[in-house]
Amino acid sequence: MKILLRAPFLLAALLLLPPLSAAQQATPGEDDGASLPEVVVTGAPVSQARVSRESMSRDELRSVPGTGGDILRALQSLPGVAVEGDLSGQLLVRGGGPQDNLYLLDRIPLAFPFHFGGLLSTVNSDLIHSVDFSTGGFGPQYGNVWGGVVDITQREPRRDRWGGRLEVNMLLSEGLVEGPVTRDSSLAVSGRRSYLELFGGVFAGSALTAIPTFGDYQAQYTWDPSPGTHFDLQAFGSDDRIGLTIDPASEAAQQDPALAGTFEFHNAFDSQGLNLRHKTGPDDLLWATLYHTNFSFETHLGADLHLDIGYEDWGGRFSWTRDLGSGDSLEMGLEVDHTLTGDHSYFVAIPGEGQPGFDVTGAARITADSTTLWTNFGAYAEQRFRWFDRKLEVAAGLRADQLDLNGHFTWGPRLSASYPIAPGTILKGSYGYYFQLPYQGPYLDKDFGNPGLRSERSIAWVLGLEKDLGEGWSARLEGYRKDLFDVVVGDPVLHYSNLGTGESEGLELFLRRAPTEGFFGWASYALSRSTRHNAPGETHVYDYDQPNIFTLVVGHQLDRGWDLGLKWRYSSGLPDTPIVGTTYDNANSRFLPVFGAVNSRRLPDYHRLDLSSSWTTTYDTWSWKVTLEVLNAYDHPNVLAYDYGAQYQYIGAPKPILQLPLLPYLGIEADF
Fold first, then answer.
1. Are strands 328-348 and 548-557 parallel, antiparallel or unpaired?
2. DSSP string, 635-670
3. How far is it, in rounded angstroms, from Cα 549 to Cα 464?
4. DSSP helix, strand, coil percent of the chain (3-state; round to 5)
5. How many Å separate Cα 577 from the centre of its chain?
6. Please, are residues 238 and 202 in contact by the beta-carbon 8 Å criterion?
C-alpha cells in the first residue's frame, strides 16, 4: 500500500485532465508553515518545491523599522509587494489589488486584517509565532485567491508560569496575560484599544463628530491531552468607528453636493474557532478546523445614503496527511463555508477598477433589503514525491470548488518542482490555475451587483533560482507571469460582468541575511508590469501598477541591549487619471470633471527612510523595552493625490496632497 501511494498518480491526472474553472475559500495544508505543539505532533516536512514563499520569525518581522512592531505591515517590505500609501497596510501582490489576498489565522479566515483599511493590523503581533507569506505558486490547499496568501500561525501560551506584557505608545495601549491552566493546557488573553478620545480637545472645532476609535482582542486556549493530540480554542475580533460632518461649503461638497451632511463608518467582526490535530498513527495526521464569524459593515453618508451589510459564516476545514517517508507525502482535504448575508442599504453603484471618479450626486440610487444564503464546497489533493536519485522534488495537486449560489463549478491543476543544479543552488518552478470568487463588496448582491458572476481565473507560472551564499546569506531570482480571465468589471446594465482580462509579469531579485551574530536584513528589487482590458480593444495600466520597487532593510543588535534599524523604500508612482476639462451641471449648479485617458500618467516617484532604535533591560522577572522610530526621516514630500480645487480651477497645475511628513513614534513595553 505504501509503495502504491508513493507512485505519482496525481501527475497523471495533471497531464490528462484539462482545467475548467474554480471558486471558494481555501485552507492551508500542513506543509505551509503551521507549527504544531510538541515535536510529537508534526505533519509532513516543508516542501522545497514551493516557490515565491517567505517564512520569517516573529522577532525578525517585528524589528522592521517604520512598522511600530506590526508584523503584517512589515510584509510590505518583502519582494513582490507594492504599497498604496503611508496609511495603508494592504498588500498589493504581483500586480494584484488588496482584495486579491487570503489571510488565515490558524486556518481561520481573518475577516479584515487591518484597522481602517491599513492603519495597523487587527492581530496582536506578540501572539504570532510565524508568518508564511506566498506571493505566487502556492498549492491546492489554498482556494478562492489568485494574489497572495498570508498564513499566520499563533504561538502557544506559555506553560511555565503566569506572566504578561503591557505596551503604551502614541496611538494605543495593549495588554496580554498568559499562563498554564493545568499541566497540559494554557491560556492567553490580549486586548488593544486606541485612546485618541482622551485628547478630544485637540479635535475641538474640527469636522469630526466622533473621534476615531478602534480596538481588538484575542483569546486562545490550548490543550494536549496526549502526545499525539492537540486542541486549541480561540476567539478574536475587532471594531473600528469614526464620524465627521461634511460642510456644504467644503470643497468636497461643492464638487459633489450629496456628500454634505454626516459621514459615519463602523466596521466590526467577531470570530471563534476550534482546531484539532491528531496523530492516528506514526505516519498519519488528521487536522480538523471549525469556525464561525459575524461581520458588520455600516456607512452613512450625506442626508440619507447608507450601506448596512452583515454576514454570518460557519465553516470547516478537514485535512489528512500521510507521511510516505523520505520526504514523500500525500495530503487530501475538504472544506465548506455556509454564509448568510444581509443587505439593508440605500446607496449608489460603486465603480469598478479603471473607472475614475465617484460622483454620488449624479448616480442612480439603489435600494436593497434582502438576505442571501449560500454554501461553498471545496476539495483538494496533493502528492509530493522525488525522482531522479530523489533530487527532483515535485508537488502535484488538484483543486475543485462548487458555489451553490449560481451553480458555478471550478477546478484545475497546480504543479511545482525544484532541482539542485549545483551545491547550494536550486532551480524552482511552478504552473497552476487559480480562481477567485468575486464575493468582495457588492459583486454578488442581487441589487447592487450580479449574482450570476463567475469566478475570476488566472493561469500563472513562476521560474526561479535560489542560491545559498553561506554564513546566513542567500539570494533568489524569480520571474513570473499571470494571465487573467473573467475579471469582474463595471457594467452599465448588469452593474458588474466578467468581461475583463489582464496580465501581470515581472522579475524579482532578493538578497537576504538571516539573523546571525546580531545582524539581519535584506535588499529586494522588483521590475513588473500589470495591465487590464475592461472591454474588447481597451487597454490601460492597472490601478495599482508600480513598475519599479526597491527596498532595503537592515537591523543590528548592539551591546547593552541596544538595537538599531533602518528601512529605505523607493517605488514608481501609482497610476493616475488626469482631469483635463470641465462641463457645467445646471441641475446641481456645479462643475463636473472631464477625465483624460485612464491611468495615463503617474504620481511622482515615492521614497522614504525610516529609522528605529530600541533599548531593552531586565530587572528581576520584568523586561523593559523603549522604542523610538522616526518615519520619513528626511521629510520627503510623497504625493498621495492631487487637489484640483472646488471649481476645478487648478486643472493646469493641481496642488499635491502629501502623505506623512517626518513623524516620531515612541513606545514602551513591559514583559513580566
1. unpaired
2. ----EEEEE--TTSTTTTSPEEEE---SEEEEEEEE
3. 19
4. 10, 60, 35
5. 26
6. no
Which amino acid type is present at position 336?
V
DSSP states of 232-265 as a string? EEEEEEEEEEEEEEE-TTSHHHHH-GGG-EEEEE
Cell numbers that stand for 31 in this block:
506543509
Amino acid making up residue 502: G
φ and ψ at residue 204, rounded to 5 degrees = -60, 135
Q: Residue 362 half-sphere exposure, CB side, CA atoms within 13 Å?
A: 16
CA-CA distance, 642 to 356, in Å (whole number)?
13
In 10 A of CB 238, how many CB atoms?
24
Which region holds residue 181: left if phi is over 0, alpha if psi is between -120 and 50, else beta? alpha
Amino acid present at 512: R
Residue 69 sits at φ, ψ, to 5 deg, of: 80, 15
Residue 461 has pLDDT above 50, yes or no: yes
Instruction: Give the pLDDT of residue 403.
Output: 83
Look up the pTM and report it: 0.90
The more confident residue out of 202 and 499 is 499
Give the Cβ contact number of residue 656 at 10 Å. Answer: 14
Pairing of strands 149-154, 102-105: parallel
Using alpha carbons, select from 376, 450, 407 the residue that is nearest to residue 144.
376
- Counting Cβ atoms within 10 Å, is residue 144 exposed (0-12), middle (13-18) or buried (19+)? buried
Residue 542 backbone phi and psi in degrees, to 5:
-65, 150
CA distance 488 to 437: 10
pLDDT of residue 9: 28
pLDDT at 241: 92
* Residue 2 burial (10 A CB sphere; 0-12, 13-18, 19+): exposed
Q: How many Cβ atoms from other residues are within 10 Å of residue 45's Cβ? A: 12
Alpha-helical (H) ranges within 158-314 are 251-255
For residue 329, give the nearest of 8, 60, 36 by alpha carbon. 8
pLDDT at 192 over 70: yes
Question: Grid coordinates 509532513 are at which residue?
Answer: 44
Q: Which of 291, 387, 393 is nearest to 48 (CA)?
A: 393
> What residue type is 616 in one-letter code?
T
Q: 3-class SS at 79?
A: coil
Task: Report residue 187's pLDDT band, with 50, 70 and 90 as the boundaries.
Answer: very high
pLDDT band (50, 70, 90) for residue 335: very high
User: Coil, strand, or helix at residue 567?
Assistant: strand
| pLDDT value of residue 517 | 83
- Mean pLDDT throughout 292-301? 95
- Of the candidates 122, 108, 132, 33, the one whose C-alpha atom is nearest the C-alpha of residue 73 is 122
For 317, other C-beta atoms within 10 Å of its C-beta total 27
Specify the pLDDT at position 39.
Answer: 22
Kindly report the average pLDDT of the chain as a whole number.
Answer: 87
Q: Which residue has the cell 486556518?
A: 107
Phi, psi of 37 (to 5 degrees): -70, 140
The C-alpha atoms of residue 533 and residue 540 are separated, in whole angstroms, by 7
Overall average pLDDT of the 235-256 stretch: 92
Task: Match 496632497 to its residue by C-alpha cell.
Answer: 657
Top-confidence residue, 467 or 440: 467
Q: 141 is written with which cell numbers?
A: 490547499
H, E, C per residue of 179-190: EEEECCEEEEEE
Closest CA to 507 of 546, 481, 478, 482: 478
* Span between the terminal Cα atoms of the chain, in Å: 52
